[in-house]
Structure formats: C-alpha cells, structure tokens
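User: Some background: our group keeps a shared notebook of sequences we're curious about, and every so often someone picks one and asks for a predicted structure to add to the entry. Today it's my turn. The entry only has the sequence so far, pasted here. Could you supply the structure so I can complete it?
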Amino acid sequence: MIEQYTITTTPKYNFPHPATDITLPQRLVELSIRSLKNALNTNPIQLNQQTIQQPFNNQTRLNLKPIPLNPKHDTTVVAAIDTSSMKIGETATGMLIAIRGATVWKQKSSYRYLRIGPFIIHITEENKTEVYNALQKAYSNTQSENQQQNLQNHQIPTRLANLLEKWLQTTLSKTLNGGIILFDGSLTAGTPDTPKGLMKEILNTARARGNVALAFSKMTTLRINGILITDLALEHKPPYILEVEGLRTKPPTVMLGEVYIAKLTRGNCTFRLDIDKEIPAEQRIEAVERLLGNDLLSQGYPETLRLAHILCTFTANEVIAMQYFATRNYGLKLVNRPNMHKLLFGPFGKGDNTS
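Assistant: Of course. Here's the predicted structure to add to the notebook entry:
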C-alpha cells in the first residue's frame, strides 16, 4: 500500500514529525514566481531535456572474504530520499528548469511518500548566483560567493536539486528515530554539490537519533585492476557484502562512509554501498540486515529508494504541463529551434548533448 502526503508553505505539514523548517520550499516558490515574472513575454523557449552527471574516479583493493547477511525482521522504519532536475526550455536570456524531491518511508506493510515540487525557475546569467546563494542561505544560512562566481548555467539544475536533496536529508535525519535512511549516491563530501561540513552535520544528526545512513550507487567509476567493482564476478551466495579497502581521495574530497560491494539478491545487479564510517562495524552490518528484513528488494535494490526515484522523476506529460503553465501564465512563447547537428550532418549528427 502506498499513501501520498503533500507539503504546503503553511505551518501545517503532513509529514510525520512535529515541527519542520520550511524556509527552503518557501524560497523556492518565491524564486519560481519571481523568475518567471521577470522573463520577457517575447522570450522563445527551446525544448530540451538534458541531465548532468559528475564522474568520480578512484583506485582501490577488495577484501575477497564475503560478509554474509541474515535478514533481521525486527520492526524498523526504512526511509529514502531522491531529487531530480530538468531543463524544460530555453529563453533568449536564459533557461527554464524544474526541480523536485521525494521522500518515501516504509513502516510495517505500508509505503508512504512526500513529494515536493516541481519548482519552475527561470535562470539567467544575471540571476544565477543570486538564486543559488539565496537557496543556499535558506538551507544552511551560509553562502560562498567565491565558489559561485564561476558557476556555469548548465550546472544550475543539478546544484539546485542537490540543495533540495540536502534539505530533505537534514529534515529526515532530525525526525526519524532508530531507522534506516537511504541516500541515492555515495557518502563522498567536499565537492561543490556536497560540502563536507553539511554532510557531516546530516550524518551526525542521524547518528545521534539512532539512525544509520546507507547510500546506494547505481553507477560507480571505482575500479580494481581496471574492472568496475560492481562488475566483479564473485561466486558467493547472496545476500552478502564485500569491504573495499585502501580507498583514497584527493583533497578537498573526503570519504565519510565505509565502502562495500553489495550483492543482496540473486541476479546480475550489484551496487556500491556506502555506510556511515562513524558507526561501529557490527552495527553497519546489522543495519544492512535490518534493511533486508524490513524492505522489499528487487534485483538487489531497496524498494523505498526505487519509489523515491520514480516519484521525483519528471514524465513527458509533466514536462508538457510545465511548458503549458509557463506559456499560459507568463506569456512565454514556445518554439522548436532546429537541431543544427542534424540539419548540417543528417544521420551523422551527434546532437547537442555530445561533443
């Protein structure tokens, strides 16, 4: 069973906790409306759907002794967070983007979710720093002007979605007790998207309330002898995890979690799993066993995290609806500009997403 919860920018908040700071969602709504109103009525919009990925590379070694797992069925709340961003249009002075986040939690036999957004924001060369710093200050009461001076327009959707994700992670870490919190990605910090201090604060808060943070990476660039760690063919019966040793990062990045290879069900799917390194080793293993005993796992991936991804991802119909909203309410004109790669090179055109 899946139950839906909604969020408003009023003091009443349906997510199951007594009090929540909603400054960030309020600021997102304000920026969305203001940025759309500031867009000229004659600005054409170029339809576009792009995603931005930031690779991470490392060299390491693997402890080949598997850690077997036995599911623990003692009742534990499992919660997951994910966010998504999308460029939905281009104007003469900038671009329209949309961001959305979702939190899903499972307790006993029920899945419930809270979905925030979509927030539609008009980004220009003139307002990009103001927009980012305003949201950063709303979340952490800090802003780093020097860091954002070189912020590129194409980085904005990912950066704003990441701020929303960190806000959701902070909120959950402050309200859940004795649970399992699932992150999408890794526990690597020190990047522009994930400042070390903010991630440490999230993990410290979660740990103080008896929670354990587990981060699942669907894709990784970590290799052993040139082979991706998730591609290693190991003849062990799942569920099990393998510890990755000797992992080093280059400053300013830092690993806040111990890294494992997780093979939690039969099949071909293996994942990189980061677990808060400040948690004792026995409790890290126990946390994975409680996850196995309290959540569904399809192809080795937790259902709560899968639902969080699905609920925050934009569908084609939603993109059309957002474009219609911008057209109807703010007078923006939608146009399809020709794809110059296809126009000039025909079937040999690579498109705008590749060089």
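Suggested note for the entry: The CA atoms of residues 43 and 71 lie 56 Å apart. Residues 7-348 form one domain.
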